[in-house]
Amino acid sequence: MSPDRVYPDERSGPFLEPPLTFTDRNGREIEIRLYEEGDRESLTEMYVEFDPADRAQGIPPSGESRVERWLDVILEDGCDVVALDEGRVIGHATLVPDGDEGMELAIFVFQTHQSAGIGSRLIRALLGHAASEGVEYVWLTVERWNSLAVGLYESVGFETSNVESFELEMSIRIAQTESTG
Amino acid sequence: MKLLLGIGGTDDSLDALSWAAERTSRTDDDLTVAILENPDSDRPPERIEAEVETALSEHGLDAEIRHLEGDPGGHLVDLADDEGYDQIVIGGGQRSPMGKIQVGRIAEFVVLNARTTVTLVRR
Q: Which of A26, A30, A122, B84 has a CA that sits 20 to 30 A from residue A39's CA?
């Protein structure tokens, strides 16, 4: 939107690339990996069943057909990481190009799997994957009252870049992954 | 009902224009269009006025068009509150590339400061 978006001078990371598995705070074995086409049905189901109270700024949209149309748009440029519990998608982090130099980030964790340490691993995995794809500038907007989300973003290196809008804008500059030759 | 449409030239303000024109054409509402100086919009006032005239003539309406100079939110609120409007109509926000609704600065100011009822138009 605004072409003069501000990013931190300092880079954050490097972040580990997916895939990875870990045990969440509730003892569930969670797999984090790149999104594959075969995940689409499970991903759609997560968003259709998503708690309306957990929506942010109108996304995910309500109703299956709107969810499908929204996913068609955001999945098109393919920077997507999912979290799975027994093969079922319970988390999704995505980057969408902003038509300028940056990518807009969004992350969603299903209501049954929140506050279990999944979001923090999911967002790191997405940033690790993004770096390997040559992405450097990432930004997002978040509702001001959502201190849990703001805390998560700050923990990986996001800094507040614009306070003039209704929502808080935050941005990060990510370190490129070391070439392994 | 007396409607006051505030339009600054962003895409969502054009949506608000078509919503208000359509509504006015099928009610006996009285519509006034206030053209605002929105620093976040690329469309100059004459472009906006042309859009307004097109929408009005499409719906066979004869609405008063006013130009508000200076701070857009403050002047829109003053006009609505001082001249007895029943409702302010403005754009309901732009969508980010991700699809997130981003409420603009004018809308935020108007919602927080108007005594008049406010409608935020969503497509």
A: A26
